[in-house]
Amino acid sequence: MSDITSIGVIGAGQMGNGIAHVAALAGFDVYLHDVARERIQSGLATITGNMARQVSSGRIEDVERKAAVQRIHGSENMDELADVDLVIEAVTENEQLKRKIYAQVCPLLKPEAVLATNTSSISITRLAAATDRPERFIGIHFMNPVPVMEFVELVRGIATADETFKLAAGFVERLGKVSATAEDFPAFIVNRILLPMINEAIYTLYEGVGSVEAIDVAMRLGANHKMGPLQLADFIGLDTCLSIMQVLYDGLADSKYRPCPLLVKYVEAGWVGRKAGRGFYDYRGETPVPTR
Ligand code: NAD
Known about the structure:
Elements: E1 6-10, H1 14-25, E2 29-33, H2 37-56, H3 62-71, E3 72-74, E4 86-89, H4 95-105, E5 114-117, H5 124-129, E6 137-142, E7 151-156, H6 162-174, E8 178-182, H7 190-206, H8 212-222, H9 229-236, H10 238-252, H11 261-269, E9 281-282, E10 289-290
Parallel strand pairs: 1-2, 1-4, 2-3, 4-5, 5-6, 7-8
Antiparallel strand pairs: 6-7, 9-10
Bound molecules: nicotinamide-adenine-dinucleotide (NAD).
C-alpha cells in the first residue's frame, strides 16, 4: 500500500476521539467505532466541542472544522471499517479486550491494511502475535490530549515490517506531529519514566508526606512541571495508570514498580479521575477540590 486515505478508530473515549479529531483535520476519512451508540455519540460531541474551541481561539478556520466534521463517520457496525487503510485501536487498556477486538476486526480488513494500537504499555510483539498480520501491526502511541500534544511514540514489534513502520511514520508526520521510536519493552519510553513518578507521588500521599495540594504545587513550582503528578494522574485516568504500573511490575519483575495500594483503592471505588468526575480531585463543582 503506497498511502493512507482512510482510517478506522476503535474506541471513542479520551484517546480515540482525539485521534479521530486530528486525523479528520489532516484530511483523512475517519470511521469511529465503539461498543455502544451512546459512546460514539459522546465521542463525536467531544470532537465537535473541541473543534469549536479551536476555531474560537483562532487555531483553525471554520471551513476546516466543517470539512473535518464531514469526514468523521460514527460507525456502530464494525463492518464499516472494512475498506480503511489503517485501523487504530484505542479501547480500554486491557489485553484480553484488545485481543477480542483484533479477532473481530482482522477478518473484515483488506490483507494490506495496517493495524495499530494506541496501548500505553502492553507488548506490541505479543499483541501482534494475536493477529493475522504481525508484520502489518505497530504501536502508534499518542499523548493525551491528542489535539494539543505534538508528540507520538512509534513502537515496532519484533515482526513489524519496514514498510509498516514507514507508513505509520508518514501518517504521524501528516498529522503535523513529531515522533520518536521506542523499543518494545514494557511501557516504552514516556510511561516507563512518567508512571513510576506518578506512582511515587501517590505513595507520598499514602504515607502522609504531603496532601494532594502540597504534592501538586511542590512538583509544579519546585520541579517546573506543567501539571502536578496527581492532577496528571486524574487526567490520564487512574485505571490506565494502574494498568501501566501492573505491566511494568509484571514485565520487569522488579518490586520498585509495585502499584501504590492507594491507587488500587481509588480504582476500586470507581474514582478514576476526570473522566469519572472524581479522582484525587472532585471535578463535579466549579473548581476541582482535593478528595484527601
Ligand atoms: P477511555 O476509557 O477514555 O476509552 C476507552 C474506550 O474503549 C471507551 O469509549 C469504551 O467504550 C471503549 N471500548 C471498551 N470496550 C470496547 C469494545 N468491545 N469495542 C469497542 N470499544 C470498546 O480510555 P482512553 O484513555 O481513551 O485509553 C484508550 C487507550 O489509549 C488505552 O490503551 C490507553 O492505555 C491508551 N492511552 C491512554 C492515554 C491517556 O492519557 N488516557 C494516553 C496514551 C494512550
